[in-house]
Amino acid sequence: MAGEEGKIDPMYQFTIKPLFGSAQWEVAGVNIAFTNSALWMMIATIVLILFVRAGTKQDLIPGRWQMAVESLTGFIENMVEANIGKEGRKYVPYVFTLFTFILFANLLGLMPLGIVGIHPFTFTSHFTVTGILAILSFSIVLAVGFWKHGLKFFGLFVPHGTPLLMTPLIAPIEFISFMVRPFSLALRLFVAMMAGHLLLEVLASFVVSGGLGGVGTGLIVSLPSMLLMIAICALEILVAGIQAYVFALLTSLYINDAEHLH
Amino acid sequence: MPQIDQLAETFSSQAFWLLVFFGISFFVVGRGMVPKVSGTMERRSKQIADDIAAAQAARDQADQEEEAWRVRENENRARAQALIAEAKAEAAAKSEKKIAAAQKRLDKKLEEADQELAAARAQAMGEIEAVATDAAQDIVARIAGITVTKPAAGKAVKEAMAHG
After folding, report:
1. In a 3-state reduction of DSSP, which class is residue A2?
2. For residue A28, which phi and psi values (nearest 5 degrees)?
3. What is the rounded distance in angstroms from the CA atom of residue A81 to the CA atom of residue A95?
4. Is the CB of residue B41 less than 8 Å from the CB of residue A59?
5. SS3 B86
6. Could you tell me what this protein does (chain A) (predicted)?
7. What Rg value do the Cα atoms of chain A yield, rounded?
8. B window 7-36, beta carbon within 8 A of A
9. Can you give the pLDDT at residue B112?
10. Coil, strand, or helix at residue A26?
């Protein structure tokens, strides 16, 4: 948390550090250092697997964990089916993984583990990570589109009922809006997560600085900042869910475009 | 901003580990566990639907049986009613016959008694005539001092009796 010379740098929390002396790990000349980011990806994966595993007991009468997991899969299934239709079932594993992976990453990043000395790293606040997830979704859309419709997939850029005269104008616009999708997908999640953590960090620095400044500033600055932090923490939990949902929802909407071409 | 400052040096490791762990999540959770969970849910809703269908069938059958029972019951009741009516009619006929027989017997007895009575009265009348004739002869003999023959006295008595 603390940067150089005791000054609090709110961006420091996003710094990536190689762990276990793995800075020079390489595969085929590419650096694959096991960083704190990778560590939290691993933790998210493990927690996710443990959570869903608790729901695969296949009991006829579900227990609490099974109920939780079933309502989560049911939620994703409904969403996919509502957006893509019956053919959407085959995308449920991907959309479910996407949603839960992002959700667990966001929530784990919010865990107040700093008080026991563990500093959670929110890897969804890195453009690299959200970008790769967005490109993954976008590649699936492209692959499905071209595999199902071949060159007709380009018909996506000419919405149904466009007058022939308008086609040269509409098609580039549609093309640009199509190409912007992965960026909007990635930026939305990245910005939302980063902004939330940044805000919390800035407010936390207010609390600390105000407290250090004496009782007066402590009461005027620290206390309101602390209360605001509590409120924003609640908001961040909401944002964690909403951003994961939006990512999964938009992915399924885009897949629907690829499946059905408008 | 570490996201940009460190982009070049960390891009490959972030991408690599993300793909590794997202891949693990996808294959273990998405491909491995989610279909199982969906399968369980599907099985459950199918079982619920089946149970409801079975309950409906059982209920329909119960309704049918109750209907059949009601029809049978109505038939039985009708038959019982008919039996009772028949028995009543038979009993009424029998008792009527008995009453008629008793009536006849009574009538006969009454008639016999009447005849006996009539006979007794006739006999009594005869006796009274004889007594009256004797009495008349005696009274005449005593009062008038004349002897009246029996036939004459009898005639007078008969006349007087006829006049009442």
Report:
1. strand
2. 55, 45
3. 11
4. no
5. helix
6. Key component of the proton channel; it plays a direct role in the translocation of protons across the membrane.
7. 22
8. 7, 9-22, 24-26, 28-31, 33-36
9. 94
10. strand
Residue pair A251/A139 in contact (Cβ under 8 Å)? The answer is no
pLDDT at A6: 52
Contacts of A223 (CB under 8 A, 6+ apart): none
Residue A107, both tokens = 């929530």
CB contact under 8 A, B18 and A52: no
For A94-149, the DSSP string reads: HHHHHHHHHHHHHHHHH--GGGGT-----GGGSHHHHHHHHHHHHHHHHHHHHHHH
Closest by CA to A122, choosing from A184, A36, A249, is A36
Listed by start position, the domains of chain A span 4-260
Question: Taking chain A (262 residues) in consecutive chunks of 10 residues, what is each chunk's mean pLDDT?
Answer: 54 76 71 81 89 79 82 88 84 90 89 79 86 90 85 76 78 86 89 88 84 79 86 91 91 86 70
Q: Look up residue A210 and give its amino acid.
A: G
Residue among B1, B4, B6, B25 with most chain A CBs within 10 A, to mutate: B25
Confidence at residue A8, expressed as pLDDT on a 0 to 100 scale: 67
Collapsing DSSP to helix, strand or coil, A7 comes out as: coil
**CA A185/CA A136 separation, integer angstroms:** 11
**Amino acid in the structure at residue A138:** F
Q: Angle between the A167-212 and A92-110 helix axes, to the nearest 10 degrees? A: 20
3-state secondary structure of A8: strand
pLDDT in tens, B5-64: 777 777 788 888 888 898 998 898 888 888 888 888 888 889 999 999 999 999 999 999
Distance separating alpha carbons of residues B69 and A231, to the nearest angstrom = 70
How does pLDDT run across A81-122, given as a tens digit for each residue? 888 888 888 888 899 999 999 999 898 888 887 778 778 888
C-alpha to C-alpha distance for B21 and B14, rounded to whole angstroms: 10
Determine phi and psi for A3, rounding to 5 degrees.
Answer: -85, -155
